[in-house]
Specification:
Strand order of the largest sheet: 16-15-14-17-18-20-19
Shape: globular
Distance between the termini: 45 Å
Strand content: 25-35%
Number of strands: 20
Bound molecules: S-adenosyl-L-homocysteine
């Protein structure tokens, strides 16, 4: 609400208040000089241990800025660490003057040397992890409608839950866990015990057969941490029954990050539908509820076999699974002049590192261009990218280039990301990787 001056004097008063002037400041009582807590600046390398005795890692000015901008990772070039620090230790973070900044997991191999656990000066002990896990689970209790019906969720999403390098997915009464960095890998028994205590699962599977572990010097591993091999586990997505094989499926058994997008995609499905990169048919089965016929394509024979099995389980007969390279199939279909009313593109991450961004963008452009050629007027295109290296704006620009090359006008119906049980951490762009555009092609 703006105040109006009632007289010229009043106007001058307001002007002074707005811009500040000596006279205005002088009428206020002078504040007593601020008492600075006298803490001598410690000498680098001789910083005193913290309250809980962890070794201290000193961060450069640049790293301090990065932390205060919300990031949770600090690179090795930005730290000074004691010589005898082992990978996986909890360390205190201090700035060059010795001020406490937080506590973090230290990694000895990865370029990411430090991953933030807390900005508080608190003990990082078993109780700390119990609290972190409980906090993570509490979010899922809020964002998952009817968890006992659905029976699946990501319970812990790594850095975004301030549990860096730890992933925990729930499928029915079983858990699938990934410990992706030295610190969580060294504590996997602890995490298994805590999860057992908190959730009493029938089984806990370890899915550490992922390449990112190589950056941490960790080997590929999968197997049981608790209980017996669970076999295929059924869960619900909307009205569709899905199945996860926790030991041999891709990822931790399924791609839970797309759960909400798949249900939403189902809303727009109609006519002839095409689901490219279908894996176990999770998008295809949502589309099948409204579309007349769905073609579901994956390069993996195992994926298609799983898809057929899941379709049968749902008594769905209008989905045909094809084993093919989606690039070839899209080209062949567009050269044959085929048309579709609904298309889903959910490819694997084309950009795995900075060096592959250009090639990835060519890949996204190509599949989207083909899809635009194939779309009937009024049709829906659900197009996704899970490459975090390609940000929202770049992905959208690439899709636009494809649309304009295909001379199509396109409405954006929804700009979506990962499901709510995959939160992102404000200030850590790496935790926001999945993009899903729901488009209507005019
Ligand atoms: N849409 C799926 C997840 C897809 S993951 C879901 O919602 O569950 C990516 C899938 O693409 C994998 O199953 C992989 O086998 C498949 N894939 C990778 N390259 C491919 C290609 N060139 N053509 C077709 N499928 C491919």
């Amino acid at each position: 609400m703006s105040e109006h001056p009632r007289s010229p004097k009043d106007a001058r008063r307001m002007e002074r208040l707005k811009h500040g002037s000596r006279s205005v400041r002088d009428v206020r009582p002078r504040a007593a000089p601020r008492q600075r807590a006298h803490r001598p600046a410690p000498v680098l390398g001789s910083i005193q241990a913290g309250t809980s005795g962890e070794p201290t890692v000193v961060l450069s000015k640049r790293a301090v800025d990065r932390l205060s901008e919300g990031h949770a990772w600090i690179y090795r070039s930005d730290i000074a660490a004691p010589d005898k620090l082992s990978g996986g230790e909890v360390v205190r973070l201090a700035d060059e003057r010795g001020w406490f900044l937080g506590k973090a997991f230290y990694g000895s191999r990865s370029q990411i040397a430090v991953r933030l656990l807390t900005r508080e000066d608190e003990p990082v002990d078993e109780q700390f992890f119990v609290h972190r896990l409980a906090q993570a689970i509490a979010l899922r209790d809020v964002v998952r409608p009817d968890p006992e019906r659905r029976q699946a969720a990501r319970l812990v999403h790594g850095e975004a839950d301030l549990l860096p390098g730890l992933i925990v997915d729930r499928y029915a009464d079983c858990l699938s866990m990934q410990t992706l960095i030295e610190a969580t890998d060294a504590r996997r028994e602890l995490f298994a015990s805590l999860l057992e205590r908190l959730l009493a699962p029938r089984a806990i599977v370890e899915r550490n057969d992922v390449r990112v572990r190589a950056h941490e010097g960790l080997e590929q591993r999968k197997g049981m941490l608790r209980g017996e091999s669970p076999g295929p586990v059924e869960f619900l997505e909307g009205e569709v029954k899905l199945v996860a094989d926790l030991l041999s499926g891709q990822k931790t058994g399924a791609f839970l990050d797309q759960a909400e997008n798949r249900i939403e995609a189902g809303r727009y499905a109609k006519g002839r539908a095409l689901d490219c990169f279908t894996y176990g048919g999770a998008f295809a089965l949502q589309l099948a509820r409204k579309a007349e016929r769905v073609i579901a394509v994956d390069i993996s024979e195992q994926a298609a076999a799983q898809g057929r099995e899941v379709a049968a389980r749902n008594r769905v007969e209008n989905v045909e699974f094809k084993v093919a390279n989606a690039f070839d199939l899209l080209r062949a279909e567009s050269e044959a002049g085929a048309h579709y009313d609904t298309i889903v593109l959910d490819p694997p991450a084309f950009a795995k590192s900075k060096d592959t961004i250009e090639a990835a963008l060519r890949g996204y452009k190509e599949i989207n261009l083909r899809a635009f050629h194939l779309m009937s007027p009024g049709g829906a295109l659900v197009t996704c990218s899970c490459s975090f290296q390609v940000d929202d704006a770049t992905f959208e620009r690439t899709v636009l280039q494809a649309a304009s090359d295909a001379r199509r006008s396109v409405q954006v119906i929804e700009r979506r990301g990962a499901a709510k049980d995959h939160p992102t951490l404000l200030g850590v762009p790496e935790t926001r990787y999945l993009k899903c555009l729901i488009l209507r092609v005019l």
